[in-house]
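EI: anyone free to look at a 158-residue chain?
SC: sure, send it
EI:
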Amino acid sequence: MANTATRATKEKNTRTVTFKSKEHEKFYQKYLPRCRYQDEYHKALVYCLGIDRDTREHVDQIYDFRTGNVEPECLHEGWQTSGSVKIVRMAFNLYCNGTPSIYNYDDSDLEGQLEEVQRYTVEDLFCCGYARYFWEAVKIRYPEYCYYVDWEDMYVEN
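SC: here you go
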């Protein structure tokens, strides 16, 4: 039961970040400093990759902290589960603003590329038990759109 408990911590900007577990929070605190930058892209990436034990244990197969590159080939590794591939795709999407794994298919495999792109849709990613944490990752990645106390004020301003 403890590993599914929600944990919350405050980041420097006084916003509360909700973590799935203590392990998730520890991972975030340990791996974010290893990133080249401490921006929203990297925060969302590390947050996502810390959600699940499988992605935490294989983080170096998913992301190269030295080069700053994602490793889309990891989606085909034997350790991946239906949940961990969703986490990796969400992390890639928030970090790269796209679907880097489609390049695993050559140009002649348009059907394979199309199927891979469809695995990045909101429905495919969010229809799982990680949805609450995916939404948290979206808020981390796009703070300027997600933290208005009164949403109507946002629309009046814009």
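EI: The CA atoms of residues 15 and 146 lie 11 Å apart.
SC: 👍
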